[in-house]
């Protein structure tokens, strides 16, 4: 067998490509599901939305509590928002496997938790003291522990160096700061919040439709995610908005809300179809959430918008800026048909129009709007992204790389 001079270079480049595209994703819900003794802890990680935050982070340690220890916490009947702070103390922003725990430099260390990362922990109350104790035990307690350790290391559950470590500790970690009452953000005024942060035009449109504004407000307490087009985007879109019927305008505005809270991490890890506030019966009014690297895109079959910033993210409400108005196909199917991709020479490219008129149809004013209609076919984009994600998440990618390396060597 003779190896060509170019083969070593080809092999090196392919290995670099393989290593740069391989990800080490983890799913804390699936990990704990294999251990029924942590079922209550696992359940409340989901209820408080901490699971999604854990899944999007790397280099992390989760201190799992068994069902008996969790029952002691639940007997306090803490509100969900307060319970989240307490459980956040059990998630460290560093990797601690069993070996590292027993080899801590100088026998003691402080580590930051997700409670500290929220910015709600006063001072350093979001730090946990980890100390090697007599008899080979490892103790855990909040920073100001006065020498008393509330919990000790029990065992290692799962270790994926140096991505995620799941360990069991004996008791709940808590503090006065974590258990302090947290006001539920039910009194948040969504329109006021948007108006102060670059989305005044969209806020004004909601106010001009009181029933729509009321729907947004009523969904805040149970969970709401809003995608807010910025002022410049709304200004360019207004000619088309004015051509919609009153019902069509209401549906378009409702289309920008999802009746469930989604952090950025949740949007990235839960790609797929999303129902909106406009969804009702046969009127689907849905769109697809798809992350593209660090970007999160919203694909409606008419346009593909990108989340460009976060206005507010505190459970149960999240508000994100988007770079385009979300156009549902239920309202803009006529627009889609009249603006196809350039056809090859010699082919017929006939204009199509909506056969049926109705409350939700839009009149085509013929005005060009590059900021809304310059996207490639969202359906094609979605297919390509889904294919790429499937390749990464399966062994196919490894097989392809190895096959290419073998051919290059031969």
UniProtKB/TrEMBL annotation:
Region (Disordered), start-end ranges: 337-386
Chief location category: membrane
Keyword vocabulary terms for this entry: Cell membrane, Glycoprotein, GPI-anchor, Lipoprotein, Membrane, Proteoglycan, Repeat, Signal
Record's bilayer topology term: Lipid-anchor; GPI-anchor
A single Gene Ontology CC term: plasma membrane
InterPro entries for the chain: FAS1_dom_sf, FAS1_domain, Plant_FLA
Pfam families in alphabetical order: Fasciclin
Record's function text: May be a cell surface adhesion protein.
Family as reported in the entry's similarity comment: Belongs to the fasciclin-like AGP family.
Record's protein name: FAS1 domain-containing protein
Species of provenance: Solanum pinnatisectum (tansyleaf nightshade)
Lineage summary: Eukaryota, Viridiplantae, Streptophyta, Embryophyta, Tracheophyta
